[in-house]
């Protein structure tokens, strides 16, 4: 992947607190140097998520958000100037109801670059991986601290990037990350052909600072969603100050990833560099991933 | 030859493992331990020992003579799971899983509960085997089921209220899974029904098939032949699977009874197979109640034990191949059967079991006198007496939902 290192991958729940606000937030995140956007589809029973994202999902569902609408929201983001890759994060059941083929067709149509399905483990994922390879919308794989001997098989077939779950448990903000995380990441990197990013629990710039040297990027979800929740009323009133506050929060959080001083924001040339390589997710790495998948098929 | 699930945990299209990656290895460990245990005669012996000595098995097979006479049709037999320790079939599974947890070196149990019956069974075996037990229960169910909450606490379990969703069984299960994801290194998740990711549907079936095995032997002894029809209620479906498993290879009509609530043509029912569509819930591909976008719909039944939006994947499979017929019974029909059974046979059944009874009465009435209908009376109804009293005195039927 050209998104080679120091990646910042924010997560938003589509439609929280309103679909239009989600677009605004995505633009702010892009301006703040996000490399990839994870767009979460709200679900009635999000069993990999902690209370913060559960509440956000409930708010978004009340807004009438659905999987097709979330994908179309990605399309609207493209029209409004969001250029960074967008990964749709959804539980599996909504994909099944939309239909696997329809899902990828709609995702393609709306400029989606990847899909992440937290309750679809490797063993159940073959049809989705195949469709992902065919449409250049890779299925992002996850490995967890419990994966152990599963790491090699998952990592060696990963496409796009590989998502490491930092610690046991559901999504949320955590004060500390487990000490063994560095060994875990080292093991994953040994097998992975794609960038390795870490998520779950990351909510402080100190954590980002520590993780930076051990992975190619960080996913920040609940911490941002919590900030959105806090600013919710003001965001709904389209208050510019609320967007500014969100941006400042994001920038201090990911400052360790950037060649910047604490309050400085991202340097202009750095931002351009990022924008230039932004859309290369599907072009470069997926092609490599598909080749890998094909080679594996030939062996069998 | 009926041989499901396959090595991927599939019952035809149904079943599988749709869980976060964090749980995959713990599931593989349980699967290995289960296969070894099932192949180990000493494990079987220990399980049977506790069923006999602690739970009081074998449970009786009761000829429902008075009801048979009144219906003037087939001969009706009740398999009396209500006579188990803790008052329902749930203990069979709880003993089995606790022994497996012990074998795996795990001393902390996680359970979910709706009515509180599985929670009580889990708390009971935890006390008996010197384990810790944490039970997740929807806040709404906690309010409606104060007595069972106190029972669990008496037994030494920690009861954790769940505030997400509608605060009932589905949400308690979500929360139990979330807790398990965080504590899978030293906790064992004891699921209460034939639901969840592989190997749970198979495991719970293996620990419940004692119901059917005993009933078959008892009925053969009494009648000298197999039953013509076997009837059981289906929420998640563990008592039904336990009963049906022993008869799948025989020429016996099998009928699963779902909760029709206020009617399957209203939005207020829990008739998952009758009205649901294919999808994934709690780690398994099965039939479930959902909207067109795949959001899960809250079910309704007067009976908390049947009030679940999914159903065990093996039931989905048995329905799809036509081996078991799934029908449904309304709140009202179940209540009538509940009262009639109490008055006529001196047995107060659980409101869940009353659904099976209502259907069994209807079937028996239409059959010849030399036929037999075997029905699983899965639990006793003491827990439902207060709610029935409120109902008969005109209070809301919601009093029943726990």
Question: What's the arrangement of secondary structure elements?
Answer:
The complex is a heterodimer of chains A (300) and B (402).
Chain A lengths: L6 E7 L5 H13 L5 E4 L10 H12 L4 H13 L6 E4 L2 H7 L1 H10 L4 E3 L9 H10 L5 E3 L7 H6 L5 E4 L15 H11 L4 E4 L5 H8 L4 E4 L1 H15 L3 H15 L13 H11 L1 H20 L1
Parallel strand pairs in A: 1-2, 1-8, 2-3, 3-4, 5-6, 6-7, 7-8
Helix pairs in contact in A: 1-3, 1-11, 3-5, 4-5, 5-6, 10-11
Chain B lengths: L9 E2 L2 E2 L8 H15 L2 H13 L7 E3 L1 H7 L3 E6 L9 H14 L4 E6 L3 H12 L3 E7 H6 L1 H9 L3 E5 L6 H15 L3 E3 L10 H9 L1 H14 L5 E5 L4 H7 L8 E9 L10 H4 L1 E5 L2 E5 L24 H8 L3 E7 H15 L5 H16 L5 E6 L4 H11 L10
Parallel strand pairs in B: 4-14, 5-6, 5-8, 6-7, 9-10, 9-14, 10-13
Antiparallel strand pairs in B: 1-2, 3-4, 11-12
List keywords for this structure.
heterodimer; A: 300 residues; alpha/beta; TIM Barrel; 11% strand; B: 402 residues; Rossmann fold; six-stranded mixed beta sheet; four-stranded parallel beta sheet; 44% helix; aromatic amino acid biosynthesis (chain B); Trp_synth_beta (chain B)
- Helix/strand-derived category of chain A reads alpha/beta
**Count of distinct strands of chain B:** 14
Strand content of chain B: 15-25%
What is the CA-atom radius of gyration of chain B, in angstroms? 19 Å
Average pLDDT confidence of chain A is 88
Oligomer: heterodimer
* Total domains of chain B: 2
CATH topology (level 3) name of chain A: TIM Barrel
How would a textbook summarize the main sheet of chain B?
6 strands, mixed
CATH C-level category of chain A: Alpha Beta
| Largest contact between chains | A-B, 41 and 36 residues
Helix content of chain A: 40-55%
Global shape of chain A: globular
Secondary-structure arrangement, i.e. CATH architecture of the largest domain in chain B: 3-Layer(aba) Sandwich
Q: Which runs of chain B of at least 5 residues are low in confidence (pLDDT < 50)? A: none
Instruction: Please outline the major beta sheet of chain A.
Output: 8 strands, parallel
The average pLDDT score of chain B comes to 96
Strands of chain A, total number: 8
The span between the termini of chain A is: 27 Å
